[in-house]
Design a protein that fits this description.
Length: 81
């Protein structure tokens, strides 16, 4: 999947989600290992309400690899210049 296609899939209609997902896509995704890139693409398949609950910490994530990715997504926004 191209960077442009991923950017389109990151458009969620909720500003908070858009900022978080695009921040990760721009800053981290290009250098991320293939397995992490695959997790990110799978994450984009989640419905917006669940994705927001995961990213906001409202719903705990039991999958350790997914939890790590969600932490990186949150951190990517904080690293914005």
């Amino acid at each position: 999947m191209s960077q442009a296609e991923l950017a389109w899939r990151c458009r969620r209609g909720r500003l908070e989600l858009d900022l978080l997902l695009h921040g990760y896509l721009e800053r981290v995704y290009p250098q991320a290992p293939p397995a992490e890139q695959a997790r990110f693409r799978r994450l984009l398949d989640l419905p917006d309400p669940l994705l927001w609950r995961y990213l906001s910490g409202e719903t705990p994530v039991e999958d350790a690899e997914l939890a790590e990715l969600l932490g990186k997504i949150r951190s990517a926004l904080k690293a914005r210049p």
